[in-house]
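>> Question from a student workshop board

For tomorrow's exercise we were told to take the sequence and the ligand below, predict the bound structure, and bring the output to class. My setup keeps failing. Could a helper post the expected result so I can at least see what it should look like? The ligand is flavin-adenine dinucleotide.
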Amino acid sequence: MQPGDEPVGKFSYTDTPLLTNQIPCHITYTNDKVHDILRTGFDKSPMFNGRIQGLGPRYCPSIEDKIERFSDKDSHQLFIEPEGRDTVEVYINGFSSSLPEDVQFKALRQIPGLEQVKMFRPGYAIEYDYFPPTQLKLSLETHLVKNLFFAGQINGTTGYEEAGCQGLMAGLNAALAVREEDPLILKRSEAYIGVLIDDLVNKGTQEPYRMFTSRAEYRILLRQDNADLRLTPIAQRLGMRGADARMEKVQAKKQAAAEIASFFRNASVTPEQINPYLSAHDSAPTIQKVKLHQILLRPHIDIEGLATALPELQQFLTPYTREYIELAEINMKYEGYIQKEHEMVEKMSRLEELRLQEDFDYNSISSLSLEARDKLTRHRPHTIGQASRISGVSPADVSVLLIHMGR
Ligand SMILES: Cc1cc2nc3c(=O)[nH]c(=O)nc-3n(C[C@H](O)[C@H](O)[C@H](O)COP(=O)(O)OP(=O)(O)OC[C@H]3O[C@@H](n4cnc5c(N)ncnc54)[C@H](O)[C@@H]3O)c2cc1C
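>> Workshop helper replied:
Here is what the output should look like for this input. Compare the format with yours to find the bug.
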């Protein structure tokens, strides 16, 4: 059984009540028998017999892809997800397939837990076309046709969130264009939306693009707990509906996090008060009075745990919500890293526009990686900023270029 998240999370900072009474998912596995049955359908699969030539989504391969690509594995994990509260239907996550219907059904019945399963609809494959997103401006307006904006799957992405966020940006920028105002372009250090659009427009994509956290270089800044802090001021500046009320909440949250941080910097604990808690959490005991802030910086120590050990802290935290406490904790625990990343953003923004010579011979710099030499020669970026975003050009390669340019 796979129960839902505890505590329950939300997608946004709205006042929607938290979900209660969640329905669990379940896990099961394929086995050799399942794989053997699926293989009998391979010659009829449009993906295998060459009828479809597109590239499958790398990160959610079909079950036949998994059997073929990871042939050393004798089982694959499946999530059985209920489709709703009022139905017996379940979605078999991890079993997407374009094999013939009878083969799918026979294979399903060999999976533990699904011996008696009925199949409402078979899995199927889809193929779609897209316009290379390198033909867009960062505002998502097409270079070729003024006032035509593209968003979503048409730009080579796959996924609900990828489509949703581009729709928001294209809509916003279409409205700004009508008002004859500058477009809104989110930076890579401001939002995952900024990373996604910058990747698409500057690098293009050869396969269905998904937004992964790993594509962002400033992951410590792009956090879920600070999404409202990062983006609400922008919404307010643009005059988006409801932004004023949201901004008030953001201010209250910032204020609360500052108050909590100030308590931690000022309050001290004695060895008698804190040592039992520390030893229970594999943390060395203290021999003298120490600021709470110092204790919090230690690994395995968090505010919630400290509060259970220190009644005074527990009482101080009573008026603060979990979100406030989480923000305060992250700000304090990761302060050094957050600061370092802000400095990196600033450094990169200074170097962003540094121009590269067009006819530069990258092959003459032996300390660049082979891949970087090849990609730089092929793409001929105009600036260091563009060079740094070419896939295959690592931060180390960018440093080599900077040294070469006397920076
Ligand atoms: C079976 C399946 C399962 C998926 N599962 C997931 C998943 O689990 N998670 C996930 O994140 N993503 C999933 N995706 C991908 C995700 O659904 C899409 O990437 C996303 O919905 C694309 O949104 P979009 O707005 O760009 O395009 P669409 O949702 O395709 O919207 C385009 C709209 O334009 C309309 N249209 C087309 N031509 C015209 C015309 N000439 N005039 C007027 N209207 C027109 C179409 O009818 C359609 O309504 C799945 C996709 C499929 C097919």
